[in-house]
């Protein structure tokens, strides 16, 4: 081999096994998440003096308080996620395909909600829709109502509305990104062939939105299942979710074993709902855009 060929040849590199690349992030993930979660599971499943393993689960799960909290958690998560999907899709369609003056400013304003703490939005809702809020005060003064006519805020519907307002940008942003990459020629061809706008939306636009809906909806579902601040600050009567129950057991009652057991169930519930959502949307969105 000549000197020139030797200089042109690539220098021998050190080939690392695949485990060398995967081990560091797995170790970091284990230290940050899996180890603390394992401690929580172990605390909740630890045997007591009166009973054996998983005695705390057997003590907590049959109670009406836990069952009510689990039901409220699922109802709020599904309702809020569905509301985020519908509202996010409607706003994204309007901003992308029916732009109006100030549409960009409106999109940036909606994005700003992501940076706001959830309790701030809850306080804003209280000032507007609360029993002594601006809207009720105006209605009582204008029409002479004896009691505030708007009282939905302190119910499960108030919690859902607040969560929809807070988490809709997590659906809107990926939808706007997906619509910006949509081939406009497909829409123009469909319209030139006589397709109605609603049919173009159904057969061309919505199939392109499936991945974004999947991403945004799954994120909203996980966030709403584990939402704590909105439920706590609204203080809806009789509305207790699993995160709120964990707080009550750990901080107010000092029953850390029960809190760990409920937290474990809350994590499992999040994973189950997330898996069901992913499978359902993947099956419904299996087809591509079609005009037939």
What topology emerges from the helices and strands here?
Elements: H1 3-8, H2 18-45, H3 55-60, H4 64-97, H5 103-112, H6 118-129, H7 134-143, H8 156-167, H9 169-180, H10 184-192, H11 197-225, H12 229-234, H13 242-252, H14 256-284
Verbal overview:
- By secondary structure, the protein is mainly alpha-helical.
- It has one domain: MetI-like fold (Orthogonal Bundle), CATH 1.10.3720.10.
- Helices cover 73% and strands 0% of the residues.
- The protein is built from 14 helices and no strands.
- The longest helix is centred in the first third of the chain and has 34 residues.
- The protein is flat, with a radius of gyration of 26 Å.
- The C terminus is likely disordered.
Q: Alpha-carbon distance between the termini?
A: 64 Å
Q: What's the architecture in CATH terms?
A: Orthogonal Bundle
Largest sheet: none
Helical element count?
Answer: 14
Please provide the ordered H/E string of secondary-structure elements.
HHHHHHHHHHHHHH
- Count the beta strands: 0
Task: Give a short synopsis of this structure.
The protein is built from 14 helices and no strands. With 292 residues, the protein is an all-alpha fold.
